[in-house]
Amino acid sequence: MTQDLAKQSIGELAPLLQNKDISPVELTAAVLKNVDKYDSQVNSYIEIQAEGARQAAKAAELEIASGNYRGALHGIPMALKDIMYFKGETATMGSGIHRDFVPDYDAAVVSKLKNAGVVFTGKLNMHEYAWGATTTNPHFGACRNPWDLNKIPGGSSGGSGAAVAADMAIASLGTDTGGSIRIPAASCGIIGLKPTHGRISKYGCFPLAWSLDHIGPLTKTVHDAALLLETLSGYDPRDPTSIDKPAQYYSGGLSEDLKGKVIGIDEDYFFRNVDKRVDEAVRQAISELEKLGARIEPIKIPSLAQAEFAELVTITSEASTVHHQNLIKHPEMFGEDTRFLLEFGELVTAVDYLQAQQIRRKLSNEFAQTFEHVDVIISPTLPFLPPLIGDNTVDINGQTLSFLDEVIRFTGPGNLTGLPALSIPCGVRDGLPIGLQIMGPAFEEEKVLNVAYALEKLQLMKGQKPDLLSVL
């Protein structure tokens, strides 16, 4: 049983820990064994904190044994994207400039996970400063996709996606500014949830673009994502973007009943120029949801035609504002791709930025009007399968297109509007997983989670896992 512990979800492990059928010590040992076995190939960790994890697991074991069980996360091994602050520990942001930066306080999400009794196994690899979607990091090495070690795991939270997919963490947190939770979730065949903007505090998380940034879970199951969402949600006056909206008991309210639910489909935007393999898998999944009683309704959101412009202008200009001084003083310390994007952001005009914000407002209004008639909107998460490490282009049905342009085409609107969006695997094609995106109304994550839960019950992945887990 011990060798299979790392494969299991929080939902499966929590009752075993609570009932003392297993110990946090043996669970942590199983996870660390996988890290030792696989991470030399995958490179999902920037820092492995094995000894600290063992000590924390022992402390959790003693607490549970004495009757002080804190809840479902108590004794669960997790690792976080190395952009969230731990007091007295290095937070690199995947960079050279901040390689030795040590914060003197915990991020809000870190405090909540510590209070829940989580065991931290280390810091996970990421795209430099979260400004990219490949996790090909020039300072800490490229992170690789466990499904195919020659392919990218997505980004910027690529280490989080890869670690969870390869059973080197039971769950993780990532950040999402243009898709950086959902992109690695889709690429690595796991669940990635970007909650409503303001739902989870970003205090103590290094910013990429403050008006677009989100923190959210990457997990093995929908239930686990719901559990982490309810644990991490809540108003935080230290985060100026935090919204005072009560969270729900998401994990206890999951339902697979889709009768009468309406799914919106925007063919003109979300199914335009999509790899045939991705299109087929996503449409098959939608068909299965229809069989469960959901109704499909065609929708049109006109301002989506300008969404790519608005996302690119907003993210580049805000990111370049964050890094302006370091770009002037230490341009040579940035990776080539990150430096290029930061220099590009310096060229964006105030007119460009304000036009982008006008588009955002119009887009948000159109989405809100659409959600008066539909419960969720479904699309592919990515229009392509993960490319090779080092490629700057993707092939979509014989067309060679820019990776950067295509990678956030379907995820970016969720950041512009701040709406909740989740990526869930819906099948495997040519040995690689395919992600389906579910978007919902603001602060109604339960709608997104319930559709995802119903889809998960269909077992469209047929239990397939990365070959890495059976080969090495």
From TrEMBL:
Q: Note whether Transferase occurs among the keywords.
A: yes
Every copy of the Amidase domain together lies at: 26-449
Q: Which PROSITE patterns match?
A: AMIDASES
| UniProt keyword terms in alphabetical order | Ligase, Transferase
Please give the InterPro entries that the UniProt record associates with this protein: Amidase (IPR000120), Amidase_CS (IPR020556), Amidase_dom (IPR023631), AS_sf (IPR036928)
**Molecular function, one GO term:** transferase activity
Q: Which E.C. number(s) belong to this protein?
A: 6.3.5.6, 6.3.5.7
The keyword Transport is assigned to this record? no
Identify its protein family: Belongs to the amidase family.
Q: What is this protein called?
A: Aspartyl-tRNA(Asn)/glutamyl-tRNA(Gln) amidotransferase subunit A
- The species is Planococcus koreensis
